[in-house]
Amino acid sequence: MTITKPIVKFVVSESIETQTSGMMQRQVLINPLINLNVPFIPTTISFAITVIVANIDSGEHEMELSIKSKEGSKIIFSTGKSQISAPNGTDNFVANVDLRNVAVREAGEYMIFLNLDGVSNEDSFYVVDLDQK
What we know:
globular, 4-stranded antiparallel sheet, mainly beta
């Protein structure tokens, strides 16, 4: 089976660490999750998003990552459009975004959007208000 279009996966976690051993670097996701529990709303939260793209052609690509509330239209984070370079022989292109103190005004579902060369990919996670549980 030949797959020609990029395959995109998202992982939300509490944090990301880079571990170095000699010349090798590995990304370690700390506590991957779907629900981000917060003590009250509005609040600020810290979390990380890892984006994995398989079947990406080598060379230059335009990428933008953004997050917004599914119910509202307010974007709570955006990288803006940027150029990335995928080296030759890349099986998986990995991008990490480590977000700190992002303002969140409502609980509920939040959408992650990755626009890669004009093609949109999306996934979601939830902000859960523990005070309302």
